[in-house]
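Could you help me review a protein record that somebody else here produced? My question to you is simply how this chain folds and whether the tokens agree. Thanks in advance; the entry in question is below:
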Amino acid sequence: MADAGPLKPLHFSILLVLAEREDYGYGIVRRIAQTDAGGITIAPSNLYHVLDQLIDTGWIKASTRMDEDAPRRSYFRITPKGLRATRAETRRLEALLARAERLDALKESGSR
């Protein structure tokens, strides 16, 4: 995965929830399901594959610790590099949306 360019929606969604606070796997899935407008659903096997990719890029870090309700759990947190990637993607999407609005691309086809 490259450091530049558009992020995949699932990568971006994970980075966004981790920008708010660190979390463990199921917590990430639950928070994305509650907040994502894109209808992203995540299978556990896919989640951990994507988390590994984000770790490999240096965008997130994992730490294992004991929890009250789980004997051992991995928590994931965004890194400064990941936060920069998230901000860059947010700016890219804002610019894309602004262009669509200037072109009236969001209007219904019959309203032009």
Remarks:
- The chain has one domain: 9-103.
- The mean pLDDT is 86.
- The longest strand covers residues 60-65.
- Residues 9-103 form a domain with the Arc Repressor Mutant, subunit A fold (CATH 1.10.10.10).
